[in-house]
Amino acid sequence: MQTVKTKEILETNRLLLRELCINDDENFYKLNLNPNVIKYTGNSAFENIDEARKFLENYSDYKLNGFGRWAVIEKESNKFLGWCGLKYDNNINETDIGFRFFEEYWNKGFATESAKACLEFGFEKLNQKIIIGRAMSENIASIKVLEKIGLKFEKEFDFDSKNKGVIYKIENKKAFT
Q1: pLDDT for 99-153, tens place per residue?
Q2: Can you name the CATH fold of 8-176?
């Protein structure tokens, strides 16, 4: 498989965040295979690597919005840990922050570190006024990450007709001055 040049977006102490590419297909496929990883997402696993590749080939957020979900790479090992980033929903004029990591990288601060960097990028570089985070009410770990990066509880909502969800929100103070 040929190497695809990807655009680096952010760097933290331990991480590089870059655009997703078709070379991420195997990692993307394996990430969603773990039922613990997708338990609170409402998503299902990809059928195979080809389905993950098609998803990545058709991922248009970068072109449509200038940003999206980004691959999270550990600098020391160059390993794909998962993804984190912002997603704009044109239907409701809202930008949300999301993240998903391989289970072996949970509880190591990677979600918080990458989400904090994405939040700062959204406010400082993209001039977002408000960023929200959605989670199933039972997903305590993700809710803790949202709280650690400064989001505050806004309201409950119907996640998917079977599960309750919560919305957390943060405002860009500079955008309102």
Answers
A1: 999 999 999 999 999 999 999 999 999 999 999 999 999 999 999 999 999 999 9
A2: Aminopeptidase (3.40.630)
- Rounded to the nearest 10°, the torsion over CA 45, 49, 53, 55 is -20
* Angle, alpha carbons 67-71-72 (nearest 5°): 120
Q: Quick one: tokens of 134?
A: 């959605």
Decide if pLDDT at 1 tops 90.
no
What does the longest C-alpha to C-alpha distance in the chain come to?
Answer: 50
For residues 34-52, b (16+ Cβ closer than 10 Å) or e, as one string? eeebeebbeeebbeeeeeb
Q: How many CA atoms lie within 13 A of 70 on its CB side?
A: 28
What is the pTM (predicted TM-score) of this model? 0.94
12 CB neighbour count, 10 Å cutoff = 16
Supply the mean pLDDT for the chain: 94
Q: State phi, psi for 53 to the nearest 5 degrees.
A: -65, -45
Residue 155 near residue 164 (C-beta atoms within 8 A): no
Task: Say if residues 104 and 79 touch (Cβ distance below 8 Å).
Answer: no
Amino acid identity at 133: G
Single-letter residue type at 113: E
